[in-house]
Design a protein that fits this description.
single chain; alpha+beta; 5-stranded antiparallel sheet; 3-stranded antiparallel sheet
Length: 595
């Protein structure tokens, strides 16, 4: 098992722990799977028809409307700002530039952030995973159904778990054979199994599971997923993160494992200490921290798998669908009509076939033969109209709105009741406060992710690939520079701060008002004026080049004004201390006449 000593844990013991942890974690989360499936299908406007309550394939988009409304109110993407603890502003500039121009853009983080929030709204939990592939930092979004989490975990701290296991990872058999890190004896065992009839059946099932998984992630907004390639044998893999006691450091340490699930077994392909895989930091961060982030909208102290906003909408949506299905069927049957007929008229007295009713095609001026009095042989089935169905549906919809705080006002729907503008504003503000209460958990998760990103870059060191960035200067010139780990390496390290764009705009507005108030107390103070102007430029997020251009121009203007003021002052003061009269244009004196 690579560099893990058998005295710390044997292969058999590690495989046993992975298997039992996987089973325990699956049972811990399984109770939520059916709710998640129903939340997702209702969001996709899909219903399952049955013979009793949902006879018509119709769906009222209550779930989708509610989720989209909530998402629109928490759609603001956060900004991470990193601070160099050595106070090296040049390194700080490079570090933040790498984050914004490389990590955020390459990972499509704004799109993944929306999908991340959708998972919280639909399932109550979401997971993110840091990784490094080919020298580039990657953030992957993980479906909660793929995660197996220790039931004793502190719901506020994912790193308190004894284990995390990510399942439903699929790899081709060909890729396993080409990977030198994997135990090829196990790979050969896998290959032999998938050549059997049972193995070929499992390969087909794995292909379908991968297709369903990727389609679901694409529906949630993750666009960088691929469908399985035809003709490739897919093997289901698991990545395990298990804490074991390491007597060499006299503490627990995380072991990272890659195992294959086949033939009822979990066979380890690779196992190594996580710190060895990622790299060593000054504080040995990766000995006891997982490369995952996770957050929930409604944290509970005793249950990691918390309820989701969609759970409050699911039952009202199903009731509304059932009632709406009944309305549709009631209207259809009432429109098409049903009839009773006298079955005794089907046989004549001599035993020959008599009247057998047919389904007639309705046509203008049509005549339909009936042997006998139609009133006595045929009777129309009266189908009573369902009463108060619209009111009942509105009642159920209101329940869903109140439970989720996605009220009609928040959705932008006009109300039949006449209320004042002030009442509308108050209702909207109250609903928004309830919705945005999840921002606390969301921001804490991004703070944790930012910290793990810092430690990932520190641990990976020069394995992070240098990139070339292009920037336009204030004169329109384009400058280029290659930046990499050497440009931001720091002894003291880094810290990060989470800043919401909306919160930042509000803070900037407050800061401008405060600066205006203080400035009025120092009239004519050039030093404060300069500080005031620099603060204003910081608030509007100008680049350093743009700030320099503006401040240089302002400095020139101030120097010119001071020079003109000095010249004017010199013209207005005479040598005797008095003030010179205004300058007048001299008049020409005619030449004196000569004799």
């Amino acid at each position: 098992m690579n560099n893990i000593s058998e005295t710390i844990i044997t292969r058999e013991e590690l495989e046993y722990r992975i298997r039992t942890a996987n089973e325990e974690g699956y049972e811990f989360a399984e109770r939520r799977f059916e709710d998640w499936r129903e939340n997702y299908t209702l969001y996709r406007d899909k219903v399952i028809v049955n013979r009793l309550t949902q006879r018509q394939s119709v769906n009222l988009p209550i779930m989708k409307g509610t989720m989209k409304t909530l998402l629109s109110r928490i759609d603001d993407f956060v900004e991470l700002e990193f601070t160099n603890l050595d106070n090296n502003k040049q390194k700080e500039l490079f570090y933040n530039q790498y984050w914004s121009d490389v990590v955020v853009k390459d990972n499509h983080l704004e799109l993944k952030d929306k999908a991340d929030k959708k998972q919280v709204l639909l399932f109550g939990r979401t997971f993110q995973k840091w990784n490094v592939k080919k020298g580039k930092v990657k953030l992957e979004l993980v479906h909660p159904q793929d995660m197996r989490v220790d039931r004793l975990v502190d719901p506020t701290d994912i790193d308190s778990a004894r284990y995390l296991i990510q399942g439903n990872i699929f790899s081709t058999l060909a890729d396993l054979k080409l990977n030198d890190m994997y135990d090829q004896d196990v790979v050969n065992e896998i290959e032999k199994f998938f050549q059997s009839d049972e193995g070929m059946q499992l390969g087909s099932e794995n292909e379908e599971k991968l297709r369903e998984k990727n389609n679901a992630m694409r529906d949630l907004g993750v666009d960088d997923v691929d469908l399985p390639m035809v003709g490739q044998t897919l093997v289901e893999m698991q990545e395990g993160f298990i804490k074991v006691y390491n007597k060499d450091i006299e503490d627990e340490e995380i072991i990272f494992t890659v195992s294959a699930a086949f033939n009822g077994l979990n066979k380890i392909l690779y196992a190594e200490f996580l710190e060895t895989v990622i790299g060593i930091t000054s504080d040995h961060f990766w000995r006891n921290h997982f490369p995952f982030g996770s957050w929930a909208e409604d944290l509970e102290a005793s249950d990691f798998w918390t309820d989701a906003p969609a759970d409050s909408v699911r039952v009202p949506n199903k009731i509304a669908n059932s009632w709406f299905s009944q309305m549709v069927e009631n209207r259809t049957l009432a429109y098409m009509g049903m009839n009773f007929y006298d079955a005794t008229a089907a046989m004549s007295e001599d035993g020959s076939v008599g009247f057998v009713p047919e389904t007639f095609e309705p046509e203008p001026f049509g005549w339909y033969a009936i042997p006998g009095d139609p009133k006595t042989i045929i009777q129309h089935v009266e189908i009573p109209q369902l009463a108060n169905e619209i009111e009942n549906l509105n009642f159920v919809t209101t329940i869903a709105e109140k439970a989720s705080s996605a009220t009609a006002i928040v959705q932008g729907v006009t109300q039949p009741k006449q209320i004042t503008l002030g009442e509308v504003t108050l209702l909207d503000a109250n609903a928004t406060k309830v919705i945005q209460s999840m921002a606390l958990f969301y921001r804490q998760n991004w703070l944790d992710l930012g910290t793990k990103y810092i430690k990932l870059l520190e641990a990976m060191g020069d394995e992070i690939e240098a990139v070339r960035l292009y920037k336009a200067g204030y004169r329109g010139n384009v400058f280029t520079r290659e930046i990499g780990p050497a440009d931001w390496r720091s002894k003291a390290g880094w810290s990060c701060e989470v800043i919401s764009k909306k919160d930042k705009a509000e803070q900037n507005l407050d800061q401008i008002q405060n600066l205006e108030g203080v400035k009025s107390q120092f009239p004519g103070n050039n030093t404060f004026d300069e500080i005031y102007k620099k603060k204003l430029l910081d608030i509007v997020n100008l680049t350093p080049d743009e700030k320099k251009q503006v401040m240089d121009e302002e400095k020139k203007n101030m120097e010119m004004e001071a020079k003109l003021a000095t010249q004017q002052s010199m013209l207005n003061i005479n040598p005797n201390g008095g003030t010179n009269p205004p300058a007048t244009t001299p008049t020409a004196t005619p030449p004196m006449a000569t004799a």
